[in-house]
TrEMBL record:
GO terms for biological process: lipid catabolic process. Keywords: Hydrolase, Lipid degradation, Lipid metabolism, Signal. Residues 40-98 form the Partial AB-hydrolase lipase domain. It comes from Solanum pinnatisectum (tansyleaf nightshade). Residues 1-24 form the signal peptide. The lineage of its organism: Eukaryota, Viridiplantae, Streptophyta, Embryophyta, Tracheophyta. This is Lipase. The active site is at S173 (nucleophile), D343 (charge relay system), H376 (charge relay system).
Amino acid sequence: MNFMRKQIATSLVIVIFLLSTVFARNILQILSENEDGICTSMVETQGYGCEEHKVTTDDGYILSLQRIPKGISGKAATNPPVLLQHGLLMDGITWLLNPTDESLAFILADNGYDVWIANTRGTKYSQGHSSLTPQDPAYWEWSWDELVNFDLPATFKYVHDQTGQKLHYVGHSLGTLIAFAAISEHKLLDMLRSAALLSPIAYLGQIKSPLAKSASQNFIAEDLYWLGIHEFDPRGEAVVKLLEKICQDPGNNCSDLMNSFTGPNCCVNSSRTDIFLEHEPQATATKNMVHIAQMTRKGTIEKFDYGNDEENNKHYGQPNPPQYIMSNIPNNIPLFLGYGGADYLSDVNDVKTLLDKLQNHNPDKLVLQYREDYAHADFVFGTNAKEIVYNPIMAFFKLN
Ligand SMILES: *[C@@H]1O[C@H](CO)[C@@H](O)[C@H](O)[C@H]1NC(C)=O
Ligand SMILES: *[C@@H]1O[C@H](CO)[C@@H](O)[C@H](O)[C@H]1NC(C)=O
């Protein structure tokens, strides 16, 4: 009897022990998930409050969003929400990498804006999906058309629902392309207050980056796609090998990859490269890279080209991909375009092509800001970007 009781007691202890380890593991998992988030690693460390949010797109991608609802003073935001959308091969950390008095997200929060930071599907903190994992090739079966159709509308609607207010938008690079495409199709308009678009990209026909040009002319992304490499991971073996090949071409100087791709950035603090490389670059879909390569070869802004009449017919009901028509952007939407003379990706001549399409835009609703010495990365990482770009953006927001 005594022996049995002892056994039961022992079993109970074991069960409780097992339960508690499972429980503890769950708690640890929750803690580490939070610890792993952008709020914990990049925002709270600077003394700012931060909220992690999740939004699921209509095609099942689960995206993380960070909200900085107050400035460093702790005073609640009095200005409208601002959504920050990063560019290609980057994530939301783009807006948080510099010291707080140089990074747009913190500057906006300190100026009373309710700041929301988007993270595109496939980046480190937006790898969830309702039925797929990043190991499934189907997970990477998208290009920026899907960001226009799914990521951007879901993110806008989420922030709009949470705040009950229309949004200001700030996009960089690919974050401008998807906004141009969306508003040219009259999406988002009922939720959008104004858009500030830095290193604007609608046309890529004049791109100066020797590396990007060489990659697109040699159909590098297409090769990867047909090899079955659907995730374009800039740190992965396949992409690194290709880069090495491109860099052996005597016309390409790869001694400074960032500048070879983005242009001679005047004002990025090179002693912060290590911090940058800790967080970036991020993966994207190879199909997305193919779509961008198509743009540089054709000089058009249109949907993904499946490469033959039959496939295009299947997707679009016409033999050629439909164009995004920039002149369909409503003339009274407040737009701020910041572009730089040294930008290898958002080339001045391509920006001129875009401005030509916007020639009927209400002149009171179109602010152009040109900076001769700025290249692509200066707009987000420039040590002087606050004076040159962010203060003018906040002045523009005040008017709209
Ligand atoms: C490559 O660029 C670096 C600086 O960015 C320069 O010092 C070097 O001389 C260049 N090499 C060639 C072969 O042009
Ligand atoms: C560049 O970054 C380093 C290290 O973070 C810092 O000590 C230095 O003051 C920065 N320089 C400028 C001009 O911001």
